[in-house]
Amino acid sequence: MYIAKVVGNVVATRKEESLVGTRFMIIQQVDKHENPIGNEVVAADYIGAGKGEIVLVGTGSSVRVGDVNKGKPIDAAILGIIDEIQ
Amino acid sequence: MYIAKVVGNVVATRKEESLVGTRFMIIQQVDKHENPIGNEVVAADYIGAGKGEIVLVGTGSSVRVGDVNKGKPIDAAILGIIDEIQ
Amino acid sequence: MYIAKVVGNVVATRKEESLVGTRFMIIQQVDKHENPIGNEVVAADYIGAGKGEIVLVGTGSSVRVGDVNKGKPIDAAILGIIDEIQ
Amino acid sequence: MYIAKVVGNVVATRKEESLVGTRFMIIQQVDKHENPIGNEVVAADYIGAGKGEIVLVGTGSSVRVGDVNKGKPIDAAILGIIDEIQ
Amino acid sequence: MYIAKVVGNVVATRKEESLVGTRFMIIQQVDKHENPIGNEVVAADYIGAGKGEIVLVGTGSSVRVGDVNKGKPIDAAILGIIDEIQ
Q1: Other C-beta atoms within 10 Å of B85: how many?
Q2: What is the ipTM of this complex?
Q3: Domains along chain E with CATH numbers
């Protein structure tokens, strides 16, 4: 997982059927001082994260473990909203 | 997932049998301002993306979750055509 | 797997239900001389690692093999506390 | 997947039993103009690719989807010989 | 897979139970001329590789395909000792 900031979102009308209704947020990985590191990626959001929020992002098959995402071609998801970095 | 631009395609006559009929597009990852980042990769396309289009690309085992791709050795696929980046 | 140093932790009140009770540590990969390499990531900790400790970190689906983590959207975990690098 | 050039091969007498009989080619990722990008990796070859050929390489669990590779600890394979890059 | 040189090992007394008895070697990826590339990682060794040896390393879920590693949180393993790079 890593810390990231939500920086935007993506709209795709024509897409894989199983993805209809999924929100796709653009996120930028950050370090613990919230400095950007690495490239932007697109993560599915089922938690309701808003632009500018600091979030915990999971990647790979891990994000399809839960019932909501099973059967969806998703490789990154917002797992939580981060309240505090210690 | 990430945002990418379709920049070409690849023709391979001699290949794994299960891949016959699959279109292989060359894609270049871009950031939300459509600036190129990272290396070109090759993604399977079942949506009908054309050269120059901005697309959403999924990677890893996620792209074999659907029925179409089960049993195919595919590690990246075009999941949707992006209409708008916000 | 890789060697890392625990450099902090993350608090997320609003998160995927299955993650309630999981400790999320911020770790920094290091080489065998404990020099930092690469980006910070967030790893689940079930071992009780403390800030400043040198740990062994596993990634990907491997960290969900055990019974504790099955069904949790986790892609990195602290597997052990390193006593000695030879 | 990505485009790569076969640049060599590797001989390993002492190895995991399930890998006996597998050809291991050293490949160099290239962009669509065949310029090298990234690091060399080792890919299993079941297609009969020769040194200097431009190939399509798959990675991760995708390459163990087919019957031939099931049960083999392989994380990269040559999926096809590329005839043309457009 | 990739070519790597064994450069050390790691001792961890406190660790996941399923990892007791596993040897953890520090490896450095190298190119075909044995020049170091990329970061050090830690790989499980079931073959008996020694410090200084050139080995073939596999990553990801592939290394848990065999019976020995099933159920162990391992994401990289030494698959063979390389005799010759051609």
Answers
A1: 17
A2: 0.92
A3: 2-81 (2.40.50.220)
